[in-house]
Protein: CUL9 protein
Organism: Nyctibius bracteatus
Amino acid sequence: LRLLPQQRYLRAERAEVSALERKRNVLCCLITRILKVEKQLHIDNLVFRVIDACQKGELGPGLQFLSFCCHSVDVLSCVLHLLNQGYLRRREGRPHVLEY
């Protein structure tokens, strides 16, 4: 019986999944931090602020991380995730305004 070494593409795939999870965690933290300060914000303004923070590499006052490419789809996906988890909610009568 001869054992084959683990395929390299499997290790690369795991690394990509890990990187995506870290990116999602950073985006969720940014969204939460911004909404904690603002209390409520139009979803478009939230997306622009998160993208701007990603490009500048700013997590918040005194905290920084390496800047990375962030798209509106990434941010909206995280917003939906946080809505489903109950961390965010939509404002009554104005569903495009998010509240923390």
